[in-house]
Amino acid sequence: MGKKHRGKRGDSGQYVNVPYAMLKSAAWRSLSGAAVKLWFELHARYNGGNNGKVRLSMNEATEALGIGKATVSRAYAELQAKGFIALTTPGSWYHRSAHEWRLTTKPVDLVKGKQPPTNDWRDWRPDSGTPPRPKTERGSHADPSADLVVPP
Q1: Residue-wise pLDDT tens digits, 42-55
Q2: Which of 21, 33, 75, 112 could be a cystine partner for 38, CB 3.0 to 4.6 Å?
Q3: Is there a contact between 107 and 117 (Cβ–Cβ < 8 Å)?
Q4: What is the CATH number of the domain that holds 29?
């Protein structure tokens, strides 16, 4: 009988742990599809010791996720507003460096130990976010010019 090697990884590779409490939270359920894709992509770039320095440029995100730059920008803003990520170091267009992000669901390595995850998403409430867009009216009654009658 052979020994099992402790600490050796299996063939399954890396995975992203999504806590059940987060999946059931109002913040997670209110995320757009683009924001969820971006959240997973940011977590795929987390290696266990780089929280606070996770980088993903707009161009990399549009390429990896197959969505436009405006959608990526809205997804970043949404994740930040709902407490899933926090900006630690702004990027610079002139120095060609991407923003550095902290994932609020992961611990941050410090010189003296680790700072536990902040899980800021737990504090988000539906009324604290941006107001929902008003629904547009559809149909012939929505057209104000339909009421005008052309004289014969």
Answers
A1: 999 999 889 999 99
A2: 75
A3: yes
A4: 1.10.10.10
